[in-house]
Each structure stands twice: as C-alpha cells, then as structure tokens.
Amino acid sequence: VTGMDLSEMLGQAMGGEGMFDIFGDDEYDLNPNPKFPEDSSVRVVKSVKSPIMQKVNMKNWEGRVINAYIDDEAEAVYEVVFDSITLNAMSEKYIKEAVDEVESFGQYIFHENQLEASKPRDTFDKTIATYRTKYHSYTWEYLEAEQRVMLKEIMLAQPQLTDHENWMNYLNQNIRFPFDVVTMGNLNNPPGVKAKLMNIEDIDATAGVVVNIRIPRVGTQAYPLMDLNCAKKKDKRQIILDLYHEWADEELDLFPGL
C-alpha cells in the first residue's frame, strides 16, 4: 500500500472529500526534495490547535506523510495521516464533532518546523481499519437502530477495505441475481424504466457500485446501483437497496460542481 493509496482510501471513507480541501487550494506544488519523504513517520513537536476543536492540541500526535508540498508562501508543508495509536487516543466527543461538521479527524497538513522524524508504530492497513471503524461508529447515528447496526456491519466486515469493496462483497453474498428493477430517474435515464439487474459489474470511485442491467429492446448496459429500486413492491432485496441508497446519498457525489 502506498501513501497515495491510503489518501484515496481515506477520501472514499469520507465521501471523496480530501483533507486538502480545507486549505482552499488543492493545487500546491509537490516538494521535489522533502525533509520528510512520502511514507515516512513523523511526530508533531509544536503546539498546533485542531481546527475541529480549538482546545485540542495535536502536539505529540504521530502518523505518516502521504504528500509533501510547497505551499503558496514557498514553505514546505506535509499532509500527515494519523496512525492507529493516535486515532485510538482521540476522545469520542472529538470524533463525533468531526463527523458532525464533516471534518477529517484522520489527517492534517503541517508545516515542516512542526514535525520531527519518528518510527512507525503500526501498518497502513491498521491505520485504515482504525480510521474506518471510528468513522462508521458515529456517521450513522441519525438512522434507526436496525439500519444503523446493519450498515455498520456491512462497512466494517473488513475494515481495511474501502466502503465500495465492502459493499461489493456484501451484495454478491446476499443478493440473488437476476431480478427486476426500475430506474429512480436521478441519472441519465428517466424514472420508471424497467430492467433486469443481471450482476454486479464493478466499482466506480464516483458512482459507487456499478451493475449490469438489461433493458428490453435496448440491451445490456452498465448502470449505477444508486439509481435502481426493485420493481416488485414486496421484494425483500429492497431493504438492502434502501440501505445502499442511504449510504450513497451520504457518501457519493455524482454532481460535484453543483
């Protein structure tokens, strides 16, 4: 697993939003000769207040560098993903505040003089699994208990994997194919187009789980699951699709410019 892979995984867990977005500029230049190279471990040695809760000091937090940049003021800055030990030390109140405010508690960008080199305390997989476990423990609090428990179980079946991968595994294991579906009308097709869902095709970073549907007199096409409902009202698979739609509404952004 590379640093960039980890950044993408954390971004997917947070609905595709990168931590770099909070700085209002995602076009900083990469640092060609960083003091702390990508994948190296670092410790925060200065007092740095968290933007999530001002009373929280990030001094002595540790993690890994996933990107090294030169900012707009020609200073070296580093995007750091906090390791599992740091994540586990965060309070419940702090993580809940981050989730409520749609802020990432898993990473931050530090200036070079705020960091020192350290030794790794865990693996990337452990970091990912810990972050996703914390995130999904609080994200779905607004759902009813049954939905909340079910969604958390799906997302954390294999915590080191992404949301998309866990969904694909769950759907393949718990849904019988093919079955009749109808489009909801949120994408290219209008609402009410009848089709047969044949199988799970792939994962798309933007559209989520993509399936193959067969439309009468049109043929087979790949289509995002997020825009499909069961055609039959009493189809028990609709329970799973409803839960998938809940996740997709929260985590996917098909129209980022709107």
What does this structure look like?
This protein starts with a helix and ends in a 7-residue tail after the last helix. The protein has helices at 3-13, 84-89, 92-100, 124-138, 145-155, 163-174, 237-251, and strands at 29-30, 41-44, 62-70, 76-82, 107-111, 115-117, 179-183, 194-204, 208-215, 219-224, 228-230. The chain has 258 residues and is α+β, with helices and mostly antiparallel strands. The strands form 2 sheets. Strands 1, 2, 3, 4, 5 and 6 form a 6-stranded antiparallel β-sheet that branches. The chain is 31% helix and 24% strand.
Descriptive key words:
258 residues, alpha+beta, 6-stranded antiparallel beta sheet, 5-stranded antiparallel beta sheet, 31% helix, disordered N terminus
Mean pLDDT: 89
Shape: elongated
Instruction: Please give the alpha-carbon distance between the first and last residues.
Output: 33 Å
* Helix-strand sequence: HEEEEHHEEHHHEEEEEH
Sheet having the most strands: 6 strands, antiparallel
Output the radius of gyration. Answer: 21 Å
Helix content: 25-40%
Unreliable stretches? 1-6, 13-25
Quaternary class = single chain
User: What structural category arises from helix and sheet content?
Assistant: alpha+beta
What fraction of the residues are assigned to beta strands by DSSP?
15-25%
- Total strand count, please? 11
Tally of helical runs: 7
Topology record:
Elements: H1 3-13, E1 29-30, E2 41-44, E3 62-70, E4 76-82, H2 84-89, H3 92-100, E5 107-111, E6 115-117, H4 124-138, H5 145-155, H6 163-174, E7 179-183, E8 194-204, E9 208-215, E10 219-224, E11 228-230, H7 237-251
Antiparallel strand pairs: 1-3, 2-3, 2-6, 3-4, 4-5, 7-8, 7-11, 8-9, 9-10
